[in-house]
Fold this protein.
Amino acid sequence: MMANTKQVTFDFSGQVAVVTGAARGVGRALVSAFARSGAQVVAADRDAEGLAETCEPFPHAVHPVAADVSTPQGAQHIVSAALERFGRLDICVNNAAVAPHTALLEETAEVWDRVYAVNCRGTFLMTQAAARAMIAGKHGGRIINFSSGASRRGGPGAAAYASSRAAVESFSRVAAIELAPHGILVNTVSPGLIDTQPKPLPPVMAQALGARIPNLPLARPGESDEVVNVVLFLASDAATYIDAAVVAVDGASSAGSRFSGSVVDDDIRYDWVTGRDAREEGRRFSNDG
Ligand SMILES: NC(=O)c1ccc[n+]([C@@H]2O[C@H](COP(=O)([O-])OP(=O)(O)OC[C@H]3O[C@@H](n4cnc5c(N)ncnc54)[C@H](O)[C@@H]3O)[C@@H](O)[C@H]2O)c1
């Protein structure tokens, strides 16, 4: 099934947005969408080369900052760049993440800590630095953090990644409550499988996805713009009463697998276990009446 991704139009003229993880994937698409919607954007990533490619089409509206979100200095540097270059901060999208997958029995403390440093500490540090700038600016703001459908599944190899994403959902609820008095809304976007990997895929990944994709409810991965549209909505004037929400952009993959077309009647399953004949029982009950 093909995606039918529509370009949705928003107007962020006069607003300043920070996007982390901007060197590729969803982050790159976010930078482009915010810039095309009139925002001035600080695009941040630790990959300076990829970042330069993202920013190249927007020499005036987008300011690249090579920094590591997992350090206090890196997070502060990104937020300070927005204030110094564009004079204010309205929107902060904490999209940067790492997702190494390892079997639990082989997982190392070093990799575990790295995942938490970027995905959790980075989200905390960016949220804190952005919120301080927004409070000083006295005009509220929007913070949009990233989780994953993996946070609700027991996907093999995802112990560090999935739990780090669940932590972001929990953190964002606390941040929403604490920052609401300042007019700052904090929400989390939880994507399902999104097609962001450079092609060609490594054979092992192509094989795994080839088996997984037909079982997704829509039998296709999402596209970056399908996530971007939801982030822009949450950052926009259309979403003034959405706060502390976790918004799934996953084509129903957190609800279940692709419907095969056959429904198993729960009564029949029950009869198979008990050996009773439901139709007989049904007759008996209706005769009782
Ligand atoms: N792609 C998917 O299928 C999928 C599924 C669920 C959730 N997500 C979430 O969506 C978001 C975007 O996914 P994606 O596939 O575009 O990611 P990606 O891996 O393609 O890009 C992540 C970016 O973050 C940057 N980054 C990593 N560590 C950083 C650090 N310490 N400081 C600064 N930048 C850093 C990387 O350099 C990279 O450019 C992530 O938060 C991810 O967890 C993605």
Summary: Confidence is low (pLDDT under 50) at residues 285-289. The longest helix spans residues 109-137.
